[in-house]
């Protein structure tokens, strides 16, 4: 363990060194008002803001400062070494004209990639508060769903990125979207309204690496955190409220950790296109759910989590072209308000089964109330979200080694469905599993089943979990 600590400290020191200005060089400040910005919420300040950014970039880096005021702007292009700082009372407000926005230079006609702030092939960049980036709810009738407009911040192939102490509000699509980036930290920031809060994707086979989201608050109309192609990711001490899914993975991921987080519904901001506020799954993990994204889904660790008023705790699906192994979920306590959905499902619909999946110290209270009709529901191939199932607790399909250890399932109303249904599970271990009401298990597929029905209460989530409401 000591050796690993030294390695972690060395990596942290290297990251801080890369992010810091060169020794002996003061970080120069560039006031946008000195470059002609009015900040009155009426004047379009795009040219003045861009001039300040360009000046900082030409100087080798610096802090571009937006003082108190409202700065109306179209697309801005960041430069390496530049920190865009929004002081107390500062608001960067997107212009209402959708045609005033642009995206990466190699895809100028792709409206889906338009954004208020764009960065490409940059290093050592930052977006800091305590001010606000306001997308102004810009809509595009030609955009996705005939509605979505420009993103808030869009980055491609950038390294050493900081977003901290900011509020991102009412963005026309994703608040913070990045592709194939390395060393991204999102700290103490708030995401309100719009669609996804933080979303990342691979680009040309290049994954995102070293992502950390810490101490943030998400109140989003769509998924709070989503993406694919993620390696070495930590989500820690976040509050997650959504009118869709809390966290959704749509592609491969490796060494991904979520800890000390609170999920709660209903969403404070409605889902724009579906006009609902139900929070679906807290964790919706489905490689290749939207389109084919082959690759591994492994070394996933979720711990010390609380959930309140969500429809489903875990919806985990494996499809063709993906593999999954070493998934661990522990110390989770939640209240679920769906009548016909299962509390959790782990389902392989591809060529390969899941490898090892463990649920340990799980305490879930479900609405219950599933009748005989619900018990006869077919188990159809899943879509992109969780769905009604003929089981109220855990449903498993296609798993080599599944362990439920100190798992407590409580249904508030009588249930005609089983608490646990397992199909095609090679090795199933049920240790200290309690379900009320006590409907018999359905264990199919002929695999090995090891049971210990003695009582043992699940350990509670850790003390660092933030308040969820």
Describe what you observe in this structure.
- The protein is mainly beta.
- The chain has two domains: 28-214, Pectate Lyase C-like (3 Solenoid), CATH 2.160.20.10; 279-469.
- Helix content is 7%, strand content 47%.
- It has helices at residues 2-19, 46-58, 372-375, and strands at residues 29-31, 40-44, 62-66, 69-73, 76-77, 82-86, 90-94, 115-120, 123-128, 132-134, 151-156, 159-164, 167-169, 176-179, 182-187, 190-192, 198-201, 208-214, 217-220, 225-227, 230-236, 239-242, 247-249, 253-264, 281-285, 295-310, 312-318, 322-336, 344-348, 354-366, 394-411, 420-436, 442-444, 448-452.
- Strand 30 (354-366), helix 3 (372-375) and strand 31 (394-411) form a beta-alpha-beta unit.
- The longest helix has 18 residues, at 2-19.
- The protein is elongated.
Quick summary of this structure?
By secondary structure, this protein is mainly beta. The protein contains 3 helices and 34 strands.
Give structural attributes.
34-stranded parallel β-sheet; Pectate Lyase C-like; disordered N terminus; mainly beta; 469 residues; elongated; 2 domains; 34 strands
Counting DSSP H or I runs of 4 or more residues, the number of helices is 3
Unreliable runs, pLDDT <50, ≥5 residues? 1-25
Count of distinct strands:
34
Structural class from helices and strands? Answer: mainly beta
Mean of the pLDDT scores? 92
Helical residue percent? under 10%
Percentage beta strand = over 45%
């Amino acid at each position: 363990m000591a050796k690993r600590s030294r390695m972690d400290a060395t990596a942290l020191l290297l990251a801080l060194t890369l992010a810091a200005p060169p020794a002996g060089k003061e970080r120069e400040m560039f006031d946008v008002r000195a470059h002609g910005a009015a900040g009155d919420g009426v004047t379009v300040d795009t040219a003045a803001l861009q001039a300040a950014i360009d000046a900082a970039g030409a100087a080798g880096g610096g802090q571009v400062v937006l003082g108190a005021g409202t700065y109306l702007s179209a697309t801005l292009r960041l430069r390496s070494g530049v920190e865009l700082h929004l002081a107390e009372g500062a608001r960067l407000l997107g212009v209402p004209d959708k045609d005033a926005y642009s995206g990466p230079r190699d895809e100028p006609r792709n409206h889906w990639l338009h954004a208020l702030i764009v960065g490409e092939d940059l290093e050592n960049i930052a977006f800091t508060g305590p001010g606000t980036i306001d997308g102004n709810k810009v809509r595009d009738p030609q955009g996705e769903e005939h509605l979505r407009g420009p993103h808030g911040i869009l980055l491609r192939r950038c390294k050493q990125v900081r977003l901290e102490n900011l509020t991102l509000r009412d963005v026309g699509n994703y608040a913070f979207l990045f592709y194939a980036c390395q060393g991204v930290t999102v700290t103490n920031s708030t995401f309100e309204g719009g669609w996804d809060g933080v979303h990342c994707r691979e680009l040309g086979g290049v994954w995102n690496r070293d992502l950390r989201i810490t101490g943030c608050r998400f109140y989003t109309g769509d998924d709070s955190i989503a993406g694919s192609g993620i390696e070495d990711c930590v989500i820690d001490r976040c509050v997650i409220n959504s009118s869709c899914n809390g966290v959704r993975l749509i592609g491969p991921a490796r060494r991904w950790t979520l800890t000390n987080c609170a999920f709660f519904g209903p969403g404070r901001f409605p889902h724009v296109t579906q006009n609902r506020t139900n929070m679906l799954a807290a964790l919706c993990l489905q490689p290749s759910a939207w389109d084919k994204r082959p690759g591994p889904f492994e070394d996933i660790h979720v711990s010390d989590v609380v959930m309140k008023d969500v429809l489903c705790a875990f919806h985990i699906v494996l499809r063709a072209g993906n593999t999954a192994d070493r998934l661990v979920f522990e110390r989770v306590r939640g209240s679920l308000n769906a009548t016909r959905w299962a509390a959790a499902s782990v389902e392989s619909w591809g060529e390969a089964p899941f490898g090892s999946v463990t649920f340990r110290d799980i305490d879930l209270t479900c609405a219950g109330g599933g009748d005989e009709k619900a018990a006869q529901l077919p188990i159809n191939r899943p879509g992109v979200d969780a769905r009604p199932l003929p089981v109220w607790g855990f449903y498993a399909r296609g798993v080599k080694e599944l362990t439920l250890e100190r798992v407590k399932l409580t249904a508030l109303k009588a249930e005609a469905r089983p608490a646990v249904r397992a199909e095609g599970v090679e090795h199933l271990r049920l240790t200290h599993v309690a379900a009320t009401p006590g409907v018999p298990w359905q264990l199919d597929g002929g695999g090995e089943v090891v049971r210990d029905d003695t009582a043992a209460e699940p350990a509670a989530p850790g003390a660092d979990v933030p308040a969820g409401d």
